[in-house]
Specification:
With 233 residues, the chain is of the alpha+beta class. Helix content is 50%, strand content 14%. Strands 1, 2, 3, 4 and 5 form a 5-stranded antiparallel beta sheet that branches.
């Protein structure tokens, strides 16, 4: 573990000296931090940091309790929010952005880096944090969080029981999609089955894309919402 801490220190020294950060440095910080978390069995204590570390390293994520929590809560926001049929979607945008816990990710970094006596200038400075999180979001864009494929067929397996329990709960409370569709319109009940960060390079910001399907996955709709990133206070 000491080698991971020393590697992080070296990366941070280089960043501080040049006053800039690149994708390779960001990715190395995530990798080394993930190894510290795994070595010390701290995944539950730093669950948001662990989520983003894993998100960065995989093309998609579909086997985590926190992923199922995010999808279930996103489904509640879309279908149970009293403003869902109104013109003002600011409340929905804010709630969906909050689900991704970027603020908690920052706090996890600060907490564990203080514990390991590592510099925190990347996370407690507004400009540094903006650069870091922008690089991270760029790298995890187009990597969906979703339920496992063919989840009903896999529901008997131990590793998929939690996923299927949440999936079934959402399916049983599904309703008709309350938004207009640019994909396949459907009058069938549907629910959130995936979430993806989308990078809008032309406009210079990120979006959250929610993928909603009916139970048989014959009709789908994508809902794109701006991602709000809370600045360091």
């Amino acid at each position: 573990m000491n080698k991971n801490i020393n590697r992080i220190k070296n990366i941070l020294n280089n960043i501080n000296r040049k006053n800039s950060i690149n994708i390779d440095q960001m990715s190395s910080i995530m990798l080394q931090t993930r190894q510290i978390i795994e070595f010390e069995k701290l995944k539950e204590e730093y669950k948001f940091l662990n989520l983003y570390c894993n998100w960065l390293l995989h093309t998609q994520l579909q086997d985590s309790k926190i992923i199922y929590y995010i999808l279930e809560e996103a489904n509640k926001v879309i279908f149970q929010n009293p403003n869902r049929n109104g013109n003002d979607t600011n409340c929905i945008i804010k709630q969906i952005s909050t689900l991704l816990s970027i603020e908690n990710l920052k706090n996890d970094f600060i907490k564990i880096y203080k514990l390991k006596k590592l510099p925190i200038f990347l996370f407690d400075n507004q400009e540094n944090w903006r650069k870091f999180i922008s690089l991270l979001l760029l790298e995890i864009s187009d990597k969906p969080l979703k339920f496992p494929e063919k989840i009903k067929e896999k529901s008997a397996h131990k590793g998929f029981k939690k996923a299927y329990k949440v999936y079934s709960k959402m399916r049983n409370s599904s309703t008709v999609i309350p938004f207009s569709s640019t994909d396949t319109p459907s009058s069938e009940p549907a629910f959130v089955q995936g979430l993806t960060i989308i990078s809008n390079n032309k406009k210079g910001y990120f979006e959250i894309q929610l993928s909603l399907w009916d139970e048989e996955r014959t009709s789908k709709i994508h809902i794109n919402l701006p991602l709000i990133i809370k600045e360091v206070e």
